Amino acid sequence: MSVNGASRAGRRAAVVAGLRTPFVRSGGDFRSLSAVELGATLVNELVARSGIPPDEYDGVVFGQVVPSPLVSLIAREVVLRTQLPKDVAAHTVSRACATSIQAATDAADQIVLGHGDVFVAGGAESLSDAPIFASRPLAQAIVDASRAKSIVDKARAFARLSARDLAPVPPALKEPTTGLTMGESAEKMAQLNGIAREAQDAFALSSHRRAAAAWAEGKFDGEVMHVPVPPRYERVAAKDNIVREDTSADALAQLRPVFDRRYGTVTAGNSSPLTDGAGAIVLVSEEKAEALGLRPLGYLRSYAYAALDPADQLLMGPAYAAPVALERAGLALADMDLVDMHEAFAAQVLSNLKAFASRKFAEEELGRSAPLGEVDPAKLNVNGGSIALGHPFAATGARMILQTLRELGRRKGAHALLTVCAAGGIGAAVVLDGPDA
Ligand SMILES: CC(C)(COP(=O)(O)OP(=O)(O)OC[C@H]1O[C@@H](n2cnc3c(N)ncnc32)[C@H](O)[C@@H]1OP(=O)(O)O)[C@@H](O)C(=O)NCCC(=O)NCCS
């Protein structure tokens, strides 16, 4: 374990291993597993497969976007449920859908600073186990009753309640400041940017075709672990169960819009679905990787986060973050061998791609003289994205880093750009280097 706190110039964070669970539709195979259990199962297996002795690990950075009120520090709880020594420090991060990007960049920063050499970074999400709340009046009545001195006063605390107050309140995927759901925000972006339903469906179809092809070609075999399904543990979840090999342009065109039923274009088919799963990577300093005889999958070269007003176009963050990450990498979009964009909605990816290519957006929004450029569709989300693979919020970033680095390795590519949009108008972008860059 490193004890030298001084920043050491020239250190690079290498990604030497990674793993994810299958991504499973929420309410399905993982419905009785909590995010902590999913995360611990994954991290335990990842540590075993990494070939790095458990006592070499310096820390775990882990996140969950919709946390359980019973687990305030998922990262530490994950450590305590694995073979990692109990003195491995851990902290929990959250940056909405960019949570495991945040975990990875935190770990990389610790490595670059010289605070440690070996980290796990990732996240887990169980939307099957999302907390269900009591309504505000019911919660208040429970508090009042707990303070009441007599049975009569306790009963009186509940007398004010109406039947409606007794209904459980599920968590909403709504922006607290605008009240708009993610889907409504995607719908607004489709309208403002002129993204037609056909274009969204074509993008979704490509996501499914590419993800199905990647599974068929065995590309995911080394990055997706098998998880026995409780409570009987007789069946094993071995594959993502959201990818549809058989979907078609016709089937997608039949689906009704969900968020604006009359005029909308965003459907269940061109949105990412609610998903359970976990994903994580192992980041190691370059010197340590060499000392341990590990060949990196690649390196985290640069990153940037950005934010915009959620009342504007909520999921446009990538268009603001990507130019900064590329500038910090000293590279241009044209230098990228792969581009991987988180697919919250097809409308969101296509809106960001338009902004990447727009001189007007570059000049007016970014204060830059030239646009980032056009993304070659042959380099974009080549093995599918969140629409087809699913989107367990906190696990998606780790899935993207691992999937992209492995593909970069297969292609002997040098660089890749990743982007993620997130709640709160946040955008994240990461530039990755291949193993020989
Ligand atoms: C869009 C959303 C509301 C749909 O939820 P849902 O109605 O439970 O979705 P389902 O999976 O049941 O799909 C609805 C129907 O579309 C069909 N369908 C979905 N994708 C399809 C596809 N690719 N091809 C063909 N049919 C498809 C389903 O089979 C289902 O049909 P059925 O009603 O006959 O069974 C939900 O997935 C959602 O909220 N997604 C957004 C998540 C989000 O906000 N993420 C944040 C992003 S950062």
Question: What do you see in this structure?
Answer:
This protein has 437 residues and is α+β, with helices and mostly antiparallel strands. The chain is built from 14 helices and twelve strands. Strands 1, 2, 3, 4, 5, 8, 9, 10, 11 and 12 form a ten-stranded mixed β-sheet that branches. Strand 3, helix 2 and strand 4 form a beta-alpha-beta unit. Helix 1 packs across helix 2 and helix 4 packs antiparallel against helix 5. The longest helix has 20 residues. It is globular, with a radius of gyration of 22 Å. The protein binds coenzyme A (COA).
- Runs in which pLDDT lies below 50 for 5 or more consecutive residues are 1-7
Order of helices and strands: EEHEHEHEHHHHEEHEHEHEHHHHEE
Terminal CA distance? 27 Å
Bound molecules: coenzyme A
Main β sheet profile: 10 strands, mixed
Strand content: 15-25%
Q: Helical percent range?
A: 25-40%
How much is the radius of gyration in Å? 22 Å
* Shape label: globular
Multimer state: single chain
Which structural class should the secondary elements be placed in?
alpha+beta
Helices, by number, come to 14
Overall pLDDT: 95
Please report the total strand number as a whole number: 12
Question: Which features does this protein show?
Answer:
437 residues, alpha+beta, two-stranded antiparallel ribbon, 36% helix, binds coenzyme A
Question: What is this entry, summarized?
Answer:
The protein is α+β, with helices and mostly antiparallel strands. 36% of the residues lie in helices and 17% in strands. Strands 1, 2, 3, 4, 5, 8, 9, 10, 11 and 12 form a 10-stranded mixed sheet that branches. A two-stranded antiparallel ribbon has the order 6-7.
